[in-house]
Protein 1
Amino acid sequence: MQNFDRIWADVKERVALKIGEIPFDTWIRDLEAIGFREGTAVIYTSSSYHRDVIKNRYLNALTEGFSEVLGRECEVRIVTKEEMDAGAAPEGATSPVEEAVRAEYEIEDTFTFENFIVGNSNKFAHAAALAVANNPGYAYNPLFIYGDSGLGKTHLLKAIKNEIQASNPKLKVAFVTCEDFTNEFLELLRAGRAPEFRNRYRPVDVLIIDDIQFIAGKQSTEEEFLNTFNTLYDRHKQIVMAADRKPNEMKSLADRLRTRFEQGLLADIQQPDYETRVAIVKSKGDLLGLEIPQEVAEFIASRLKNHTRQLESAVKKLSAYHKLSGDPLSLSMAQNAIKDTIVEDAEAGVYEDKILEEISRTLSIPVEDICGSRQTADVTSARQVAAYVFHEVTNFSTKKIGEVLGGKDHSTIVYYLRKVEKDKKTNSKLRNTVDDIIKNIKGR
């Protein structure tokens, strides 16, 4: 792979001379070189649009560049993210390439306790989850697992589900995300079919609900969940929940629910330590049939420290590079596999649609109204909250925030910011709602 990196650097220099500095910086500079496969240079780009532009305008320059550097004819193939995500090979791909691309995104991870890597950061949560799976309804009820996104909470929840279903197939187990629970309830409520919803969740033996923090502030859903919780608990049915924070940090959560959440066992998961991260990399490699050298696993683990999903993504990409290039696994290949993730971390930010979606969901105001011209009290309040949240979680200027919110001018946005800041000091409900929105956005 290292030799190919040098070849790619030489090719890019030649392509820059052929097409000019501006087109090169726009379309070629950030392409990723994966390696050779059966005499074909395989290049990765992020989208089909990018690929099509390159094929239509610059493929000849790339092909000529490789041929000049190598001293022989060489074909160039562009592999896109969309093609990888879909598990399909790019046009004209040979079977080995198709298999490599598909393999990167087709890890069948069955979420068991056996393939959950236990370390100091998660061993208590793991032990609690295993105890619940072995004795549902009586070990720890409810079990509340909390920790930042991407640390393995969902894995433990699904491991509980799978273990119970394997050992007690007669038990009825329901696994649902809080978002699906909320949407399903509201949809059936509007349709006048609320009893149908209750008949779906209250007869279960085990209720497992992920991302429960999103229920905070949604009064009708909170009430329904509280009634479901009480019904199941009184019948000694197991309840398991996961969230990105402790119940007492969910400021807009109803007190009655908070006390229910806290009456069982709280188990936290922290960021994995170095040794655990190394073990996770090796384990994810095993799932792909990839024997990752110790130095490569240690390199990835030393660079990616935030959460398990980063490590899994790096291993998937490493596998694709390895199979597409035919080169042995190496530190150079690992560097290519993780460089995008490192850049993403360095440039971490939150995007407009994500923020607007969370505000809309929490306040029950459509995004088009928040960004529109309606002036009803609830819409105006939501728009003010949106301006404040954008100000808190992005580096957007007031001009940019105004553009996002439908073309509001600078003075209007400044007024919104000052009003929310002032109102937060005396309105605890507003303060808690805004704090929850910000935490939900950052935790997604």
Protein 2
Amino acid sequence: MNNINLPPVVKNLLIINVLFFAAKYVLNNIGLANLDYLLGAFYIDSPFFRVWQLVTYMFMHGDIAHIFFNMFALFMFGGVIESRWGAKRFLNFYLITGLGAVALQLGVQAYEVYHITGSIFNSGITDMELVNQGIQANISIPGLSEEEKNTLLGIYGFPMVGASGAVFGLLVAFGMLYPNTELYIMLIPIPIKAKFIIPIYILAELFLGVARIPGDSIAHYAHLGGALLGFILVKLWKDKDNNRFYKYYE
């Protein structure tokens, strides 16, 4: 794969993500705008929700490590897949898996809000606003535990950011299209075939999503949503894929 030229959609996605990341820190540091709250994806009943966030969230990232690992995966796997599918199909795949990621995450959030309040809307959170890069809000529902209050504040007051959902879609696509390609994983000194290591990643995300480990702020269900849409799209498209240029990797 080292000899494969970087195709146009992957190259432009890398550039756009880096530009968004740089703009976020510049604008935040000068106090002009908080792009996480403008472009990150909020729960649909949050006062911060805007419809464009369903797309723009996948171009935002939390920190250097977050964007580095997502862009590294996009570079490593996206180039191979775009070279096989072409620019249009690859871009459609990337955006659809990103939308699938946010859809599943919002669905899980709606379930959590309903479980706590009995409704997915009008949760009783009022006067929510961003104050000094933090959330200030009142919760008017009586009888809630501190854990339930914190859950609601987390859902309503903090955005989801990152391309991880679309990246997980790419991982699944790569594992399905090139199952016998050997991959090196950090801390594991031997190569492992894609058809083995990628399902392990998916199962780990499922476990972490269900376990709800305290302090874990990663949107694991978004990763699963991207992986699920990636699986469905590859199954729909694979029989129509007549480009065998990369048969070597299969």
